Structures are given as C-alpha cells and as structure tokens.
C-alpha cells in the first residue's frame, strides 16, 4: 500500500511540475475534497473532452480515531452540458477504489466500485465545487483479524457521499 | 429540469445515510454443543461403498455420530443423494440433470450390476429413525449448475422438500443443512427444526458476515482456511453461531480440530475417535 501511495504522490508531483504545458491545453484540474470512502483526498482530473474526465486520487484519514485508512481510486465521470438551474450542472461517475483499514481489531484491504450522481457548481471560471451521492459495492481482497473478541466485515453495499473542490489549471 | 435536480439532491442526501464501512457482529452468546463427528459422504475413505448411497450412509451411521450427504432435487420434487448435479448411466456418461428428470427416470438409471447407484434421502431418514435415532445428518445442498433456468425456484423447492421430509419423519433438531444458496437459506430462516449453516469458502469473518446476511444459525467452514483453535470457536459462539468444520482427516488435524471444540466435524477417517482418545 505504501508503494502505491508513493507512486501516486510521484505522479501528482510530475503533473504539477508539468502544469504549464497542461495549462496551455486546459485539460487538467487539481482536486481536493472529502468522501466517506475516498477520505480526505487530493487528486488530478484529466478532462479529455468537454463533458468527460478521468479522476485519479488518493486519500487518508490521517490516523484519526485510532484507525488508519488509506484510499486510492480512478473514476470516470460525465457532466451534462446544460445547467439544471442556477448554473448547477448534473452528472454521473463510475469508478474503482482501493482502500485499506487498519486498527487494533482488523486489517482489511478492499476493492470498491462507486456509482455516483453529482451536482457541480462553478464558483468562478477556474474553480468549481461538486457534491456527489450514490452507492459503493465492496469486495474484500485480504483481511487479518488481530483478536478473537470482535468479528467484523466490510459492508458489501453501502451509501457514499463526497464533496470536491476542483481547480481547473487551464482557465484564467 | 427542476424535478431532476430535486431527485439528484435527494439521492445525494440519501447517500449520506450509509452504514458503517465495517459492520461488527453483536454479542449473542451460544454455549455450543458437545462436538459430534460426521462421516463425509456417508462412507468416507471406505471404498467398499459408493459415496452418497444408502449402504454408505448405513456404514457411516454405524461408525460415527452421524453422516454428511450431498443432496439433489428431481423434477418430481424428491430429494436424491449425489454429489454431481448430473445423472449418469452405468458407464459414467451424463444422461441429464436431476431437476430435469422424473423419479422413474432416475430410478431406471440407478441400477448397475444389480446394485442401486442412486438412493433417496427419504430412505436414509427411514434408516435413521428405525436404527440410529440418536444420530444426526448434515445435508450438503449442492448448487443446481446443470440447468441454470429457474435455479432460485429450484433452491426454494429443495428447502420446502427438506422441511417436509423432516416433519414427516419427526427428525427435528437432528438435521443440518449446508448451503451457500441465498434462496435456499432464506426459505429456512423462520423455522427451528433444521439447523441451517452457510458454507463459507473464505475465512471465519466472511462466514459470519454471510451467516448474518441470510440469518443462518451457523457457518460451515473448510478446515485449514485459517488457524483454528478454541478461541476462534469461542468467538463464533459468542456471536450466536454454530460451527461445522470440513473435512478433517489428518491425525494431527483431527486432534487440533477436536481440541478447538467446534459443534460438528466432518471426516473421511473412520479412525477419527481413536486419535482423540489417545
């Protein structure tokens, strides 16, 4: 897991260093936000068409509540062109998310498939806020029970929400 | 458009009501029962008998505390003994699926060299009631892979057939069923005469989560998937579930499994009790 996070950070740094080139093309956004499964996250979004993008992100809970959580995911999303009202545009996203949970009771590594709908609101030409809701389907990849008092298991299906702030590097 | 936006907002708000990412089983202590040992497929390693037949069952019942048998359902709703979902002729060629064949057709295919290859579960129940009233029987409910149409309905019918047979022979609390079919187990979730166990191909944690999801009374766990000891069995019991371990044959494994104190152990080894008495 540490190597995945290290690679993700390296990728983000590379993207940031190359942001001038990307700025010219107007195709990359930097994101930060919070999600129930995505945790406090940062990421990069490749807007490969006017309405479609791929989002790569990594997140953590910073070890709060005596539990260490990590997440890394890739999401495809599409935003409808026409605003519903008051500049709010709807959209949907589908993705894959790998997350781990480690505390005194268990270690779990889990693959999740989030399916979400969202509303995005442009605060300025280069800055947007996005609220999403939907569900995730979880499959446990590995687990380690560290005691024989409590028995737990990740929910196979669950609700998920996330809030993202998106800064588009290509807009001035 | 405004209606769509309201729907989207509603979905987003509703999603915030998700459950905990990791659900923990509540405490519901169950004291367990003295461990009973069941002969796997009736005959275990004894090749003098064909597995999952009435003679194999009689042998197993005479040696251990009970037997485990694999179960199939015919087109007529009769429960037959076999591991395979396919009915085979005397040369071993498939001639159809159990659930597509009538009892007469299965019976016609059953006789090979003056011995019956296929027997009904009812014949085993008759034997238990008449000669082994203290014995228990575990029914391994196999998936109906041979014919994939109406599989869910077939599994529900199997559950109904098992309950009907248990009632007919008053075998209450002497029959276990092992299955990973949600439909089969859900059909049994509001009764107390049969002990329904969910088959777990994963570890104890996955088994307990599956048991909670289908309201099973226990888990059927492959021995060796994770280290087994009395603490692990105590954990399972403390959450209110029983445990079947399968299939324990090696002498060291037999001693370890026995000392773990599960509720049931399935074995092919007729000398099982010799190892634990040493």
Verbal overview:
- The complex is a heterodimer of chains A (172) and B (278).
- With 172 residues, chain A is mainly β.
- Chain A has one domain: Porin (Beta Barrel), CATH 2.40.160.
- Chain A is 13% helix and 59% strand.
- Chain A is built from two helices and nine strands, in the order ααβββββββββ.
- Chain A has an eight-stranded antiparallel barrel.
- Chain A starts with a helix and ends with a strand.
- Chain B is α/β, with parallel strands linked by helices and 278 residues long.
- Chain B is built from ten helices and 14 strands.
- The relative contact order of chain B is 0.14.
- The longest helix of chain B is centred in the middle third of the chain and has 18 residues, at 151-168.
- In chain B, strand 13 (242-246), helix 9 (251-260) and strand 14 form a beta-alpha-beta unit.
- The A-B interface holds A 36-37, 82, 84-85, 88, 90, 101, 106, 108, 116-119, 131-135, 140, 143, 145, 148-156, 158-161 and B 1-2, 4-5, 8-9, 11-25, 202-206, 208-209, 213, 231-232, 234-236, 238-239.
Summarize the structure.
Chain A has 172 residues and is mainly β. Chain A has two helices and nine strands; from the N terminus they run H-H-E-E-E-E-E-E-E-E-E.
Helix content of chain A: 10-25%
How is the main sheet of chain A built?
8 strands, antiparallel, barrel
The helix tally of chain A amounts to: 2
Q: Element order, helices and strands of chain A?
A: HHEEEEEEEEE
Largest sheet of chain B: 8 strands, parallel, barrel
Number of strands of chain B: 14
Query: What name does CATH use for the topology of the domain at 28-71 and 137-277 in chain B?
Result: TIM Barrel
Overall 3D form of chain B: globular
Structural class of chain B: alpha/beta
Assigned CATH class of the domain at 28-71 and 137-277 in chain B = Alpha Beta
- Average the pLDDT over all residues of chain B and give the rounded result: 92
Task: Give the neighbour order of strands across the main sheet of chain B.
Answer: 2-3-9-10-11-12-13-14
The CATH architecture of the domain at 28-71 and 137-277 in chain B would be: Alpha-Beta Barrel
Taking Cα atoms only, what radius of gyration of chain A do you get, to the nearest Å?
Answer: 17 Å
* Major interchain interface with per-chain residue totals: A-B, 35 and 36 residues
